[in-house]
Amino acid sequence: MQDKINEIEQSIDKAVQDVKSSKTLQEIKMKFLGKTGTISALMKNMRDVPADERPKMGKLLNALREWCENKFDELENRIKNLELKKKYADEKIDVTLPGKKPEDGAIHPNTLVKRELISIFAGMGFEVFEGPEIENDYYNFTALNTPSDHPARDMQDTFYITEDLLLRTQTSAGQVRVMENKKPPIKILSPGKVYRSDDDATHSPMFTQMEGLVVDKGITLCDLKGMLDEFAKKIFGENIKTRLRPSYFPFTEPSVEVDVSCFECGGKGCRLCKGTGWIEVLGAGIVNRRVLEGCGIDPDIYSGFAFGMGVERIAMLKYGINNMKLLFEGDVRFLKQFKA
Ligand code: PHE
Q1: Phi and psi dihedrals of 21, rounded to 5?
Q2: Ligand 1 atom, smallest distance to 171 CA
Q3: For the whole model, what pTM was predicted?
């Protein structure tokens, strides 16, 4: 028996000689100490050993098992330590290496213009109000004096969600929400996304508008003109003039289209202004009495003006961008060219 034990001890020594990973060590350990391993088999054979020899044999076998267990424990510890050291070495970070600078983004020209507009109008006492992009037909059209059979609905190709819900085609929808909830004096600026089924070099199915609404006693077209003069000078330059041309919107009466003198040629006529010396920048007008009435504001006491402009259009004019698609591509090389 002692010979057999010596043999087992030797074969274990040999088996573990070159072991480098805990996984192979575990496999070898199972071969000797596992349920079906060599030592277990010897233990089972004890049944066949004559009774008087059993105590001696038991002692020998127990000593063998203990020897084995100690051996494997010790090896396990050693290998685990080595593995840990290797892991630390592999994961070592050189904190003295120079850092990688994250690529800078840029503020989108739309955002630049939006911020500039808000700051100009905030300086004149306007508050910002943001209405919902999904609107009821009522706020987008009916309450703005555009009932369902009104031909002016065709001015805007609307995306309908249901018969009654739509993607707002104009931030003017917010006017009614404001006037329903707030009594004059009202002075709000309402920026936001609007949607129309329209797509070419100067139109996009989604674009941004900036709406303004002022309601108080004695507001006239003169107030609108004065305020727009101020706005045009601030955004396009000191020498800019404005002019009003008659137009039509169902919710304003009278309605006007507002032009600014061409900042490219100073009004002499060039490619930008198509030789006219003027550039159209927004729609505006005196709030229609019917709209005020519908919001519970007495049109015999109060009056107001409203205006709405396309933010992309202002950005394109201000920065000389000739294709609206550039504003939606998000190319950082393009965006980086613009500064406030
Ligand atoms: N909502 C109009 C449009 O989208 C612009 C506008 C706003 C006109 C306010 C008059 C007053 O075309």
Answers
A1: -120, 150
A2: 1
A3: 0.72
